[in-house]
Design brief:
This protein is mostly helical. It has six helices and no strands.
């Protein structure tokens, strides 16, 4: 059984995902690279242009909103994993306490201030 499709996000959108990734602002690209959830660059670009054109946000605010959404999805993914793990709250006390992943991004797992 070929399992190559399992690691790639599926999207009905047409276009080049590499070009879509390059068209995103640098902070959004960084958030996509660091994210735990597999994001489709075509969908991220579509959301970014939607925020700019339809919601009439400035490019910096649209990028910040997209980065916030990506990080919120990451935290939801980790919290869902912690709930299904047998030792959930004991193994991940910071998740059980409602902390975010971004607070624990420091070197060697040390919290960032």
């Amino acid at each position: 059984m070929d399992n190559t499709k399992a690691t790639k996000p599926r999207s009905p959108l047409k276009g080049d995902p590499y070009r879509a990734f390059e068209e995103l602002p640098p902070e959004v690209r960084r958030a996509l690279q660091e994210s735990l959830v597999d994001w489709c660059p075509l969908r991220a670009r579509e959301w970014h242009t939607h925020l700019i054109r339809k919601e009439r946000l400035r490019p910096a605010k649209a990028a910040a909103a997209l980065v916030r959404t990506i990080r919120k999805m990451d935290h939801a993914e980790v919290a869902a994993f912690a709930r299904t793990w047998p030792k959930g709250a004991k193994a991940y006390p910071h998740v059980a306490a409602g902390a975010t992943i971004q607070r624990y991004r420091g070197r060697g797992g040390i919290p960032n201030g």
